Amino acid sequence: MRYVMALWLLLTLQSLALAQSDVVYYLAPETDSDPRQVYPLQLLRLALNKVDPRIQLKPSPFQMTQSRALTELIDDNAIDVVWSATSRSREQIWLPVRIPIYKGLLGYRVFLYKPDALTQTPAELSLEQLKQIPMIQGHDWPDTKILEANGFTTLSTANYDATFRMLNQQPGRLYPRSVTEVWNEWQMYRQQGIEIEPTLMLHYTMPQYFFVSKSNPELQ
């Protein structure tokens, strides 16, 4: 699938103006252990290499949250491209490369949780009971609004690492994670008693795109 996606991105990125810059800056991972950037970065590198192998991909000079990165994208400061779940507001401000990076899989969510912190397993709860359990989210993630609009209770924090601290320090919460993310994260945190709930899944439409600045449309 990676090579099919790269071909589509190649067709989208083929108008890239190398004369403007031979370096494309992307958002550095929020933390050194963040596994979420591996596949999108490989895909972007493959596509740009097909456009022109002289183009260099470099991380932003400092780590930042997703919302801060998107602000930097507006100002054309430290970042040229960001990959993110889309929303109407984001597409009004930035230019999306409208090819879903994970083919829609980002919207298929299973739960990380601490089994000994709940009196009932999530599978034993009704939908209304499930909606009362706080769902851990990043404060600037588009799916936070999706969950809230559908009656779920959310508990937000500022950055990626803090979501796992919240799950550990405030048990009784659920952490919905994409099927593209959850296995690596479980491997990282399972020694802390965190498990994957095996019987439930949430699904909502949430494609993830590459975004570029409207002042830099050559990258679209």
Structure in words:
With 220 residues, the chain is α+β, with helices and mostly antiparallel strands. The protein folds into two domains: 2-103 and 208-219, D-Maltodextrin-Binding Protein, domain 2 (3-Layer(aba) Sandwich), CATH 3.40.190; 105-203, Periplasmic binding protein-like II (D-Maltodextrin-Binding Protein, domain 2, 3-Layer(aba) Sandwich), CATH 3.40.190. Helices cover 34% and strands 20% of the residues. The protein contains eight helices and eleven strands. The chain has helices at residues 2-13, 38-51, 66-75, 88-93, 127-132, 142-149, 160-169, 182-189, and strands spanning 23-26, 56-59, 81-85, 95-97, 108-113, 135-138, 154-157, 175-178, 195-196, 202-203, 208-212. The strands form four sheets. Strands 5, 8, 9 and 10 form a four-stranded antiparallel sheet that branches. Strands 3-11-4 form a three-stranded antiparallel sheet. Strands 1-2 form a two-stranded parallel ribbon. Strand 6, helix 6 and strand 7 form a beta-alpha-beta unit. The longest helix has 14 residues, at 38-51. This is ABC-type amino acid transport/signal transduction system, periplasmic component/domain. Keywords: Signal. Residues 1-19 form the signal peptide.
